[in-house]
Write a structure and sequence with these properties.
By secondary structure, this protein is mostly beta strands. It has a single domain, classed as Jelly Rolls, CATH 2.60.120.
């Protein structure tokens, strides 16, 4: 069995992020395809599974488990399950990330308002 999700089937949020959850398609992973403006990013949160980020374009400041680091195009970051984390676009242009969730559905607990 296979499924093709064509470009345009998954609509981006007003902030430019596309959300994909694998479960409805028989997939074992989910992801966000982020395309954020400078200064944008999620609040501190955590998931009950690991998350892997692939920075495709731009520059981001990540906070993970209380530590801060910067990443740019080509960098890959991984956080383990239940690790508080967030990121912010600190570049002058768009930040493009693929945020891979090791779960067929996205489960997120926000830790900031």
């Amino acid at each position: 069995m296979y499924r093709v999700i064509r470009a345009g089937e998954l609509q981006p949020s007003p902030g430019g992020t596309i959300k994909f959850e694998g479960e409805p398609y028989g997939g074992e992973i989910s992801f966000f395809h982020v395309n954020n403006d400078p200064g944008a990013g999620p609040v501190l949160h955590r998931h009950p599974y690991s998350e892997t980020w692939i920075v495709r374009r731009g520059k981001a400041r990540f906070v993970a488990d209380g530590e801060t680091l910067e990443a740019c195009a080509g960098d890959i970051l991984v956080v383990s399950a239940n690790t508080p984390h967030k990121f912010t676009n600190i570049g002058e242009g768009k930040l493009e990330l693929i945020c891979i969730h090791a779960s067929p559905s996205i489960i997120q607990e926000d830790l900031e308002a």
